[in-house]
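Incident log, structure service

09:12 report received: a user says their structure output differs between two submissions of the same chain.
09:20 pulled the input from the user's history:
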Amino acid sequence: MPRLAPSPLHLAETERSQLEQVVKRHSTPQQIALRASIILLADEGLNHRDIGRELNISRDMARLWRNRWFELSQKDIPVLERLVDAPRPGGPATFSLEQILQLFAIACEKPETYGRPISHWTSRELADEMIKQGIVERISPRHVGRLMDEADLKPHQSQYWLNPPPTLNSTKRSKTSVRFT
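09:34 re-ran on a clean worker, output below:
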């Protein structure tokens, strides 16, 4: 039974040199360098199985990036942009960076500043305050908690990390001595 060989890949000299530079550069992300290596080995005439063995990846990954290279090279896209991930599906971010920073600013203030009769912020109170101030139309307390966790902010410990513990002033120390008998 005849073996199906992948379509041969022929790189222009400029493409080859750019890919080699990408692989050799220390600041190149590993995914991009691996993809460039796949294309370089495909240009040398290796099939998907050989590329997979050489780079310790699956045949499917070698096939994916060879096929993607063919697709994008016909569209005259620059070499580096051909190695980048395709856009992923999903909705855009719900909250802007400015809205998130406003949440952090509120969390760093005392609740009394906003007329809240509580001693420490909770996720629910922060969500309510953001809605009250018109920063967002709606936000769940759970999402507020996730944002606070990502930023490693703990508003319930605001007294702890905003204000240092009081120290004893040397002039106010008690001068009583203790006698042990």
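09:41 both user submissions now match this output. Likely a transient worker issue. Closing.
09:42 reviewer note: Residues 97-162 form one domain. Residues 120 and 156 are 5 Å apart (CA to CA).
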